[in-house]
Amino acid sequence: MPTPNALVIRTAGTNCDVELCRAFTLGGAGVELVHLERLIADPTQIAKFDLIGFPGGFSYGDDIASGRILAMHTREKLLPELNKAAHRGVPMIGICNGFQVMVQIGLLPGFDDHPQCVALTENEGGRFIDQWVEMVPDSASNCIWTRRLLDQPDSEPILYPIAHGEGRFVTNDHATLEKLQANNQIALRYGSDINGSVDGIAGICDPTGRIFGLMPHPERALDWNRHPFFTRLDAGTKQQPTPGLSIFTSAIEAVAKQTV
């Protein structure tokens, strides 16, 4: 079985790229960390990858707005190749800043007739939030990245760290929210109202389930000793993969099955 190869795109200001590379590696993929300018010089490089990751951080200092400059460069220089990758079934993940970029360039929610109908805007409380929060995966979702989360024991809530000032998920109208719900594109919700996101949405996928964006950081939760209640977890739980790692193993397994 060939090893899937993942691309992680970094640029000035990204600060979770190494963690995202480690997540892909632990999940069973090869990984290459490539600077945005190298990809812009030759966008056809994207064609050789089986998975693509947009890491979190504060790209270009989040000047103007979160992810705005990275989104502009990506849309103008890389979007045609990214669309080709999407059409051939390449799973993609955007975390925090990466999620913000994905919605700004139209990879999410993936509506051909209205590509930019959702946004991530200022938290309802007007403050940066940095804490571990409970996540609830939607069992009806098409998302290939969250399938393994459904196997997590009910006795232990799924916790991920969040760190954002512009993470409130909004839609341009109620019809868009209804479409996301009807298409089973809502992959992940907050366990409580954290930032005012509509319907408690923490992450969505495109209609195929292969392109996934989320505000929490699973790549920061790959080891149980990072868990805020690590010392109180039972031994059986700590023998299982963390919910953070499960995000990546789920998608990588899906890719491996396609390439057999």
Description:
- This protein has 260 residues and is of the alpha/beta class.
- It has a single domain, classed as Class I glutamine amidotransferase (GATase) domain (Rossmann fold), CATH 3.40.50.
- Helix content is 29%, strand content 22%.
- The chain has eight helices and eleven strands.
- The strands form two sheets. The protein has a nine-stranded mixed β-sheet, sandwiched between helices.
- A hairpin with a 5-residue loop joins strand 10 and strand 11 (211-214).
- The longest helix has 17 residues, at 243-259.
- The radius of gyration is 17 Å and the shape is globular.
SSE map:
Elements: E1 5-10, H1 17-27, E2 30-35, H2 36-41, E3 51-54, H3 68-77, H4 79-87, E4 92-95, H5 97-105, E5 118-121, E6 129-137, E7 158-164, E8 168-171, H6 174-182, E9 186-190, E10 201-205, E11 211-214, H7 235-238, H8 243-259
Parallel strand pairs: 1-2, 1-3, 3-4, 4-11
Antiparallel strand pairs: 5-8, 6-7, 6-9, 9-10, 10-11
Task: Give structural attributes.
single chain, nine-stranded mixed sheet, 11 strands, globular, alpha/beta, 29% helix, 260 residues, two-stranded antiparallel sheet, Rossmann fold
Show unreliable segments: none
Distance between the termini: 6 Å
Mean pLDDT: 95
Give the overall shape: globular
CATH topology: Rossmann fold
Q: Biggest β-sheet: count, sense, barrel?
A: 9 strands, mixed
> What is the CA-atom radius of gyration, in angstroms?
17 Å
Give the strand order, joined by hyphens, for the main sheet. 2-1-3-4-11-10-9-6-7
Overall structural class, as computed from helix and strand content, comes to alpha/beta
CATH class: Alpha Beta
Return the domain count: 1
Reported CATH architecture: 3-Layer(aba) Sandwich
Residue share in β-strands: 15-25%
